[in-house]
Design goal:
- Chain B: It comes from Pontibacter populi.
- Chain B: Pfam families: Ferritin_2 (PF13668).
- Chain B: InterPro entries: Ferritin-like, Ferritin-like_SF.
- Chain B: This is Ferritin-like domain-containing protein.
- The complex is a heterodimer.
- Chain A contains nine helices and two strands.
- In chain A, α5 packs antiparallel against α6 and α6 runs antiparallel to α8.
- In chain A, strands 1-2 form a two-stranded parallel ribbon.
- By secondary structure, chain A is mainly α.
- The radius of gyration of chain B is 21 Å and the shape is globular.
- Classes of the chains: A mainly alpha, B mainly alpha.
- Chains A and B meet through α6, α7 and α8 of A and α6, α7, α8 and α9 of B.
């Protein structure tokens, strides 16, 4: 009887008060019984913060999800990073570049922006929230630093799509990813040539293959530039 | 990787695994016959195929795609090899360096595809005879014609691989290798386009690609603005022109479309 009552209390505890007290939260988690729920809870906390609620800010780990949705969210995360970077370049650094280069930066900014917005729209309610970027290590007054960072992002993007293709189960999504990755490769080549003409494909092995990287490795490489913690734990392996 | 350990593990859940694999023994034999360097790349591909076949998925589609890709790579390799041998065609320095680099990649793609096809128990097609002068008689004396064709071949290659990705979805290793080639072709395409003072990306149906009317099939459909069920992606946000939207997405070509382009050089 006593046990039943306990359960009832856990069940009835309102979401807000459960989140507010660590002790009770643990009970709530036990009740839910699935770690997957953690992500949802953290999402909820984050949006509460935005509402001006004075709850302590949780480390806002964003879970990419599973299956094809998880892979598309993974792509969406990378496109968010790239789009934010080029938006900053165009806003702060265009004066460092000649006219042709300025057009290149504007075009890439547009491409990455539309990749981001497209993936967000395609994912709908499954889309991860906006990520917080961290560009504190990038010197936006230094042309070479901007270009080498751009190269890092573009090469990483190409390797990420190349490595993630095999995890997609829907052929339509696979083709869509293919439509995006070759444009990322074009960006990478053009940026590389701006750094040193002729290095457009030096990313490739002697077998003529570009790298294909696994999500965990890509996210580790990108993590220096993303403040939001990202979990790829549920991505296909 | 220990292939026998993998098969043993499978045996635990599928006692008939050896029966399934038995008729495919030659696939394993082939693994031993390829050179060490080639084997490094081909073994995962071959492994994938063995299981695909053992578990009832047709390998024919995959072999067809690989031979289709091989034909394009033969074409590119042959084109650059001949061009590099044509006296005075490609200026020394950066242009020659770039074309040599690209030629080496295309040659590597030919070898990788042949090895992969063999490791899947298939037969690589023989190298066809190409006739680049058939419609472009000054292709090996006029540097601009040569570059125009190079751009067309690279942009076609990107579209051709993209169009076949869906056919490789059941073989992870082959799909990944194809994607790894696909992005290298895109890098080549971007560089050649920049050599011609074109933008590295394709806007509209080739509006920014500076090709003669006869080469338009290479860019047909590139102006597409409908993606993934969204009718007009320029409406996704403020300031997305049709140029930006079409440049942000490359489009696939079907086998038939590619074959029609290749036939201009056969």
């Amino acid at each position: 009887m006593e046990k039943l009552q306990d359960t009832a209390i856990e069940k009835d505890a309102s979401f807000e008060s459960t989140m507010a007290a660590p002790m009770q939260r643990r009970m709530f988690m036990r009740y839910v019984g699935a770690t997957a729920a953690l992500t949802t809870l953290i999402f909820a906390t984050t949006s509460c913060d935005e509402d001006g609620d004075d709850m302590p800010r949780d480390p806002n780990t964003v879970d990419l999800g599973s299956g094809d949705t998880g892979i598309l969210n993974y792509a969406y995360a990378l496109e968010q990073l790239e789009a934010a970077f080029y938006a900053e370049v165009v806003a702060k650094s265009l004066g460092l570049f000649n006219q042709t280069e300025q057009q290149i930066m504007q075009d890439i900014k547009g491409h990455e922006g539309i990749h981001r917005d497209f993936l967000k729209a395609a994912l709908g309610s499954s889309a991860i929230p906006d990520l917080e970027v961290n560009f504190s290590t990038i010197n936006f007054n230094d042309k070479n630093n901007i270009l080498t960072t751009a190269r890092t992002f573009e090469d990483l993007g190409v390797a990420a799509y190349n490595g993630a293709g095999k995890y997609l189960e829907n052929a339509g999504f696979l083709t869509l990813a293919g439509k995006i990755v070759s444009v990322e490769a074009r960006h990478a080549a053009v940026i590389r040539d701006l750094i040193s003409n002729g290095t457009f494909s030096d990313s490739a092995s002697t077998q003529g293959l570009d790298p294909a990287m696994m999500p965990a490795d890509v996210l580790a490489a990108a993590s220096a530039f993303i403040k939001t913690k990202i979990s790829a734990n549920n991505l296909p392996k | 990787m220990n292939i026998f350990k993998i098969i043993e593990d499978i045996e635990k859940v599928d006692p008939e695994v050896y029966n399934r694999l038995d008729s495919r023994r030659s696939a394993f034999k082939n693994l031993g016959s390829i050179s060490k360097k080639a084997a490094f790349a081909a073994i995962p591909l071959a492994l994938g195929s063995v299981f695909q076949k053992a578990y009832g998925q047709s390998i024919n589609t995959i072999l067809e795609v690989l031979n289709f890709a091989l034909k394009l790579e033969y074409l590119e390799r042959n084109f650059y090899t001949q061009a590099l041998a044509a006296n005075g065609l490609i200026p020394d320095g950066a242009p020659k360096g770039a074309i040599q680099k690209i030629q080496m990649h295309e040659a590597a793609h030919v070898e990788l595809l042949k090895t992969t096809i063999q490791s899947l128990n298939g037969t690589p097609i023989a190298e066809p005879t190409f006739n680049f002068g058939k419609n472009f008689p000054d292709w090996n004396t006029n540097y601009q014609t040569f570059l125009t064709l190079a751009q067309a071949f690279e942009d076609t290659g990107v579209r051709a691989y993209k169009g076949q990705a869906g056919n490789l979805i059941n073989n992870d290793a082959v799909l990944t290798a194809a994607l790894q080639i696909h992005s290298v072709e895109a890098r080549h395409a971007a560089h050649i386009r920049r050599m011609r003072n074109n933008e590295g990306w394709i806007v509209g149906d080739g509006n920014n690609s500076n090709v003669p009317a006869g080469a338009q099939p290479v860019y047909a459909g590139e102006g597409n603005l409908a993606q993934g069920g969204i009718n007009d992606i320029t409406r996704l946000g403020a300031g997305y022109s049709a140029e930006i939207a079409s440049g942000a997405f490359d489009e696939p070509l079907t086998k038939e479309q590619v074959a029609a382009i290749v036939s201009l050089f056969e």
